[in-house]
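Subject: Interface between my chains keeps coming out wrong

I've been trying for a while to get a sensible model of this assembly. When I model each chain on its own everything looks fine, but I need the whole thing in one frame so I can look at the contacts. Pasting all components below, labels as-is. Any help appreciated, I'm running out of ideas.
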Amino acid sequence: MTPSLTFNVLAQDGSARTGSITTPCGVVRTPAFMPVGTGATVKAMFPEDVAAAGADILLANTYHLMLRPGAERIAKLGGLHRFMHWEKPILTDSGGYQVMSLAKLRRLDERGVTFQSHIDGSSVMLSPERAIEVQCLLGADIQMVLDECTPYPATREEAKSSLDLSLRWAERSKTAFFARAKPGQGLFGIVQGSVYADLRELSARALMDIGFDGYAIGGLAVGEGQAAMLEMVEVTAAILPPECPRYLMGVGTPEDLLLSIARGIDMFDCVMPTRSGRHCQAFTWTGKLNLRNARYADDPTPLDPESACPAAQYERAYLHHLVKSGEALGSMLLSYANVQFYQELMARARDAIAQGCFASFAEDVRRRYAAANPNDDD
Amino acid sequence: MTPSLTFNVLAQDGSARTGSITTPCGVVRTPAFMPVGTGATVKAMFPEDVAAAGADILLANTYHLMLRPGAERIAKLGGLHRFMHWEKPILTDSGGYQVMSLAKLRRLDERGVTFQSHIDGSSVMLSPERAIEVQCLLGADIQMVLDECTPYPATREEAKSSLDLSLRWAERSKTAFFARAKPGQGLFGIVQGSVYADLRELSARALMDIGFDGYAIGGLAVGEGQAAMLEMVEVTAAILPPECPRYLMGVGTPEDLLLSIARGIDMFDCVMPTRSGRHCQAFTWTGKLNLRNARYADDPTPLDPESACPAAQYERAYLHHLVKSGEALGSMLLSYANVQFYQELMARARDAIAQGCFASFAEDVRRRYAAANPNDDD
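Reply #2:
Try treating it as a single job with all components included. I did that and got this:
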């Protein structure tokens, strides 16, 4: 039996498309934004509110979960869905990115990467095979190959050598996945190549030769700037097979999402809505607000009158009071409202694509964000 | 028109009684436990979950709200109920207790107390009249007279002199209340007298001569120990008029509540369920648990299988993981579960009183708590 998920494109508008991915735990409508549930929780949110906000799928971090509470423990407790009270699809990353950004005393060789846990200092080994084993223990519906997320900046030679290692790991990841995964689960390859268009093309074609259920674009939003990012997205998405979902990792602002959807991207993840929520910032249909700003102290307007989110019905004056007082409810309400804004943005994008008016929709959102008070955008 | 709330005793079992208080914003079933919403939020809880947990009424702190965001501001925004999205009854304290425990550079005289705000250092005056003005601006359904919470320990002379000042302030509070309050709102006097039974009696009788809608017992749970506390509760409750609600301020553990209900107390407030929730402790029908304890790392049991609270359905292993990881969701779930446990405790107490079996119910709960693992009770 071949594990695989299915992807259907329902409508296309320019390079933007809307469709659905069918996984063992349900359907993901695309374009999709995945809230990040790093440590088996989308920070400061009840899981039922993540679902109520409209999220079809969330992302969990292999690195964090293998260190705490441990993948074997989660498997024994019935898998990640059950552990964190989330019945819908879950995508797990491979852990590679966090090893490079969080772990100490790394040693990287052909076999994999050995590192010291940032939690208890123990020595941990992550290989392509172990990354898949962990993701299968968690029971992830969509799994990612282990790759080396090429640091930025990188010379052409560094990027090429890193990419070659990632390709060998991708092949080993696929072998491990087919030996372990359950029917319906899927595995995505990850395109690397830094900001070099020819390397991106080389990486994409080599991954397509191996063959994956979907293709991610990694190593972007790491400091290269929006223009370079969008160029790499455009070059890469144009090569990737149209019958597979395309996932831009770690992106981004509402504008980044719309510009990337216009270039053919189907999936995103980012900590931005939740992290911003914990830092007093709100994404709304009238732009970005910083609730610490004194102008909101007496403002009886709901956070976002255009949003259907229960949290967005709270008045700005109250939210200002909560964040000034350091109350947990401030983070809870802003995280909820932001996660739902991102979901509403994706829902409207899907509708616009289906109706063939995506470009004007994206321009309308861009104008709303440009008109928002610049003092609030900090 | 005379502002007043109404209290009906429905059943009595020994000195314990069950009834209902009717306020402008709805009915409060007694015995009632009021979750504490210090800064216009019950910490780490959505207001709709506080209501779903079964709370008929919550307590808000005059001291905190007059300093931030300000009583006049809340009044302009439509009052405290609207500000904090809580439509049910609210009781406010007078601010006196917090002035003594939180404010710096206090100066207390016949007129009132002047202090330095712990938030911005400004000089603030709290008199009996201002305490009532603030509570009326907030729109509290049940208001408290300004008193001096006698520190513990206090000599008989100190306690008497403090009590006398509080009585003069109680009279001024009542005058101010009748000039300002809206129909249906109520004012409670506060019995002081430290651990001196004759002073408690003197205080209670003097307050009854002034006449209030209800009577609180203050200045307890401040270090005098459970036996002394219960003795003062028993002495005082026996004197207070049976047709008025009796409120024991700042208490306490589940055992304290049941022992006080047995002595005729109708209302309580305490930060214990929410503060414990933020410190990894859970009140359950099988006793108190400390979720940081390693024994829960692999425990698939729901937090409290006997509770109807959605938060109590989460497995102990997951809660252990959340609190070990410092995740906000841990505090959110434990606060919710604890607040609901306290409400379920009150609901069962009301039923037991109505059925005439309160003593055996209280003994059953005491035994459950005594049987819980002592290591978890820290």
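Reply #3:
Confirming on my end. Chain A is about 40% helix and 20% strand.
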